[in-house]
C-alpha cells in the first residue's frame, strides 16, 4: 500500500537514479544472521537448502551491496552481480527504461559494476550471516580472453558464493552470447569448473555448484546442445532465462529502445523456454525459472512447468519491496490447494 502511494513520485525520477535510491535505502534496513531453511516452502537444489524457492535475480544488486537486506524482505535467496574482474562503466546513459504501460523494463546497462576485488571484499564481510547468496559472474567488455575472465572471477568468488552463476546470456555485451555455442560453452565450463575445484582445495573444501544463465532467444538445436553439455558437466542448475532482444507488441514510447526486454511481455517466452529445457534435460537438471514472474500464480506455474526455483526483478519495480512476502504467502496457499506436501513434489507436475 505504501509503495503504491509513493510509486508515482518515484516514477518521476530517471529509472537508473530511482534504482540507485532503492539500493541505498536497503542499506539502512536492519539485518542479522539469516534463519535456516526449515519452513513449509523450504527446498533443496544442488545441495543447497533454500528457505523458499523465490529469489532476487541478478541485476538489482550488481555489486553485492545489499544481499542480506534482500533476504530480509522475504526472498529465499539473492543473486548478486553480474560482476566482472575489472570495474567498468557500462554503456552510455540513458540505458534503463520503464515501460509502464507494458509492466516491462528495457535495459542496456552493459555489466556496469565496481569490479571483482571491491565486491569480494564486501561479500567476505557478510559470510557470518549465512543465507543463500549466489554470485553472478561475467567478463569485461574489452577483454581479450573472456574465458580467462570467467576463470579469474571463479577463483575470486568461489569461496564466497552459495553458488556461482555463469552469465553468458546478456544481450548488452557484444559477442557474449556467442559463448552459448557448443564448443565455446564446453571450453568455458571446463575452465570455470577446473578453477572452482582448485579453489575448493585451497579454501577448506567449499565447492559451490555452478549455475548457467541462458538466453530465451535460442533455437531448438541450441537448447538441446546446452542441455546435453549441462548434464555432462554436472552443472548445479540452468537459469532460464535472461532478457530478450525480441520485441512483442508493446505500448510504451520506449518500445524501440535497444537492449534486453524483461517483465510481463517476456513471461510467455520464458515459460516456453523453461518447458523446452525441461524436455531437453529429461528432468535430470534443476531449472531456475525467470522472466515475467509477478504473482504467486506466475511462480507456481513456473514450478509446475519444471522450475525448482524462481526469480524476479522487474516486477519489484512495479509492485514494490513487499512482493517477496506476497508471493511466498501465495505459494503456500497454492501448494496446499493443489495437495502438494513440498515444493520439490510440485516441480514438473503439470
Helix and strand topology:
Blueprint: H1 2-10, H2 15-26, E1 43-45, E2 48-50, E3 54-56, H3 67-72, E4 77-83, E5 96-99, E6 104-107, H4 116-124, E7 133-137, H5 146-157, E8 163-167, H6 182-202, E9 210-214, H7 220-232, E10 237-240, E11 260-263, H8 267-281, E12 287-290, H9 296-304, E13 307-312, H10 314-319, H11 323-337, H12 343-346
Helix pairs in contact: 5-6, 7-8, 9-11
Structure write-up:
The protein is α/β, with parallel strands linked by helices and 350 residues long. It has one domain: TIM Barrel. Helices cover 37% and strands 16% of the residues. The protein has helices spanning 2-10, 15-26, 67-72, 116-124, 146-157, 182-202, 220-232, 267-281, 296-304, 314-319, 323-337, 343-346; strands at 43-45, 48-50, 54-56, 77-83, 96-99, 104-107, 133-137, 163-167, 210-214, 237-240, 260-263, 287-290, 307-312. An eight-stranded parallel beta barrel has the order 3-4-7-8-9-10-12-13, surrounded by four helices. A three-stranded antiparallel sheet has the order 5-6-11, with no helix packed on it. A two-stranded antiparallel ribbon has the order 1-2. Helix 6 links the parallel strand 8 and strand 9. Helix 9 crosses helix 11 (323-337). The longest helix has 21 residues, at 182-202. It is globular and about 50 Å long. It starts with a helix and ends with a helix.
Amino acid at each position: 500500500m505504501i509503495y503504491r502511494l509513493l510509486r508515482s513520485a518515484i516514477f518521476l525520477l530517471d529509472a537508473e537514479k530511482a534504482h540507485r535510491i532503492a539500493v541505498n535505502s536497503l542499506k539502512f534496513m536492519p539485518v542479522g544472521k539469516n534463519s535456516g531453511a526449515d519452513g513449509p516452502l523450504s527446498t533443496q537444489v544442488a545441495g543447497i537448502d533454500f528457505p523458499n524457492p523465490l529469489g532476487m535475480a541478478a541485476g538489482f544488486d550488481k555489486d553485492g551491496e545489499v544481499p542480506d537486506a534482500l533476504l530480509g524482505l522475504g526472498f529465499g535467496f539473492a543473486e548478486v552481480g553480474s560482476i566482472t574482474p575489472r570495474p567498468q562503466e557500462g554503456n552510455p546513459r540513458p540505458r534503463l527504461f520503464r515501460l509502464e504501460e507494458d509492466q516491462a523494463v528495457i535495459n542496456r546497462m552493459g555489466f556496469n559494476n565496481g569490479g571483482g576485488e571491491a565486491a569480494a571484499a564486501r561479500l567476505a564481510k557478510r559470510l557470518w550471516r549465512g543465507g543463500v547468496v549466489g554470485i553472478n559472474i561475467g567478463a569485461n567488455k574489452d577483454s581479450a580472453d573472456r574465458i580467462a575472465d570467467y576463470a579469474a572471477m571463479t577463483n575470486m568468488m568461489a569461496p564466497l558464493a552459495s553458488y556461482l552463476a555463469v552469465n553468458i546470456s546478456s544481450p548488452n555485451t557484444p559477442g557474449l552470447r556467442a559463448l552459448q555455442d557448443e564448443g565455446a560453452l564446453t571450453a568455458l565450463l571446463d575452465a570455470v569448473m577446473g578453477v572452482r575445484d582448485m579453489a575448493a582445495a585451497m579454501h577448506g573444501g567449499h565447492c559451490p555448484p555452478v549455475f548457467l544463465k541462458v538466453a530465451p532467444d535460442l533455437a531448438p538445436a541450441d537448447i538441446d546442445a546446452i542441455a546435453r553439455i549441462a548434464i555432462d558437466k554436472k552443472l548445479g542448475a540452468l537459469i532460464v532465462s535472461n532478457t530478450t532482444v525480441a520485441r512483442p507488441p508493446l505500448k510504451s514510447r520506449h518500445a524501440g529502445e535497444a537492449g534486453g526486454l524483461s517483465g510481463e511481455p517476456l513471461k510467455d517466452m520464458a515459460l516456453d523456454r523453461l518447458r523446452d529445457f525441461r524436455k531437453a534435460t529429461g528432468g535430470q537438471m534443476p531449472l531456475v525459472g525467470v522472466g515475467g514472474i509477478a504473482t504467486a500464480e506466475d511462480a507456481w506455474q513456473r514450478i509446475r512447468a519444471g522450475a525448482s526455483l524462481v526469480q524476479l526483478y522487474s516486477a519489484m519495480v512495479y509492485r514494490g519491496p513487499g512482493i517477496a512476502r506476497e508471493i511466498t504467502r501465495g505459494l503456500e496457499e497454492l501448494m496446499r490447494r493443489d495437495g502438494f506436501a513440498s515444493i520439490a513434489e510440485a516441480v514438473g507436475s503439470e
